[in-house]
């Protein structure tokens, strides 16, 4: 049993929101299953709904440690003295407490330099993440991402069949940090940043869905998810920007977005990492 006290930051917020803040890898499904089984107490009273909590409330959890903080084996796609490429599962952040980086640092706890991620993926976006294993490599790779000398390709399963098989989309994105949402505009607005998203249709299916290869020239928060939804082709399973009825129909619990190609296309000197130029790593998934 674990006992928690609600802090003021979660006053008047849902119990599930507070629990995820305490256990970032605890799934919403696990929370609702525990509620159905009445394995959660609020101020010593068993509850079965996602109630509003208040400052100093006492939460008792009768949930196993493996569910609260699930462990997993790192899926290492490639590793040498300078880089580490990992295939990230869903339901885990890249950085932060109990994150992918946290797990990597546990494995490399004796290393003088703990591997650091060079880019990010959303919690429930799966696929390839590039880590640098020394400070020199980290500085080079961050610069290469900034200069667009590392290609990232995503697979996105969307609802609908785009009429254009290949498209390069330009729009403007505003990030609302308080709501943890972004908004898209077709024209410039104050506070909005320009975004560029390109896609190619790989396959279309009889159930009115399509598999896209997506690239982004600008790496903004939720860019792919929000931009595709904005043009009428939401990613299936996306709880923020997708369609609830579509998600229910297909039965996916998180967005069908997967980072499946990392390719090094250096056009300038890369020092000790010149040997990576032209190399490509792939990760396959089944949507």
Describe this structure in words.
Helix content is 20%, strand content 33%. It is an alpha+beta fold. Among the domains are: 2-68, Structural Genomics Hypothetical 15.5 Kd Protein In mrcA-pckA Intergenic Region, Chain A, CATH 3.10.290; 154-259, Pseudouridine synthase. Strands 7, 8, 9, 10, 11, 12, 13, 14, 15, 16 and 17 form an eleven-stranded mixed sheet that branches. Strands 1-6-3-4 form a four-stranded antiparallel sheet. Strand 9 (116-117) and strand 10 form a beta hairpin. The protein is globular.
SSE layout:
Layout: E1 2-5, E2 13-14, H1 15-22, H2 28-36, E3 40-42, E4 45-47, E5 52-53, E6 58-61, H3 65-68, E7 76-79, E8 83-88, H4 100-107, E9 116-117, E10 126-132, H5 135-146, E11 150-159, E12 166-176, E13 181-185, E14 193-204, E15 209-216, H6 223-230, H7 244-250, E16 257-264, E17 280-282
Parallel strand pairs: 10-16
Antiparallel strand pairs: 1-6, 2-5, 3-4, 3-6, 7-8, 8-10, 9-10, 11-15, 11-16, 12-13, 12-14, 14-15, 16-17
Summarize the structure.
By secondary structure, the protein is of the alpha+beta class.
Which key terms come to mind for this protein?
about 290 residues, alpha+beta, Structural Genomics Hypothetical 15.5 Kd Protein In mrcA-pckA Intergenic Region, Chain A, Pseudouridine synthase, eleven-stranded mixed β-sheet, 17 strands
């Amino acid at each position: 049993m674990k006992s928690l006290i609600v802090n003021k930051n979660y006053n008047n917020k849902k119990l599930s929101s507070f629990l995820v803040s305490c256990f970032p890898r605890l799934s919403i499904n696990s929370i609702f299953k525990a509620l159905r089984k009445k394995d959660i107490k609020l101020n010593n009273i068993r509850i079965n709904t996602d109630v509003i909590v208040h400052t100093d409330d006492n939460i008792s959890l009768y949930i196993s440690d493996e569910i609260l903080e699930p462990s997993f084996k790192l899926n290492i796609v490639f590793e040498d003295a300078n880089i580490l490429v990992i295939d990230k599962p869903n339901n885990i952040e890249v950085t932060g407490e109990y994150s992918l980086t946290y797990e990597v640092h546990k494995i490399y706890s004796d290393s003088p330099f703990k591997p650091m991620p060079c880019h990010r993926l959303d919690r429930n976006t799966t696929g390839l993440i590039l880590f640098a294993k020394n400070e020199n490599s980290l500085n080079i790779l961050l610069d290469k991402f900034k200069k667009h000398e590392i290609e990232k390709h995503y697979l996105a399963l969307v609802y609908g069949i785009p009429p254009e098989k290949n498209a390069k989309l330009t729009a403007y994105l505003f990030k609302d940090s308080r709501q943890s949402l972004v908004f898209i505009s077709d024209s410039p607005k104050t506070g909005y940043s320009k975004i560029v998203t390109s896609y190619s249709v790989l396959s279309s299916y009889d159930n009115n869905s399509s598999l896209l290869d997506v690239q982004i020239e600008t790496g903004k928060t939720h860019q792919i998810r929000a931009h595709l939804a904005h043009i009428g082709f939401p990613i299936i399973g996306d709880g923020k920007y997708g369609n609830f009825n579509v998600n229910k129909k297909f039965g996916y619990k998180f967005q069908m977005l997967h980072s499946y190609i990392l390719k090094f296309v250096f056009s300038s000197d890369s020092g000790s990492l010149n040997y990576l130029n032209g190399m490509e790593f792939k990760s396959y998934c089944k949507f």
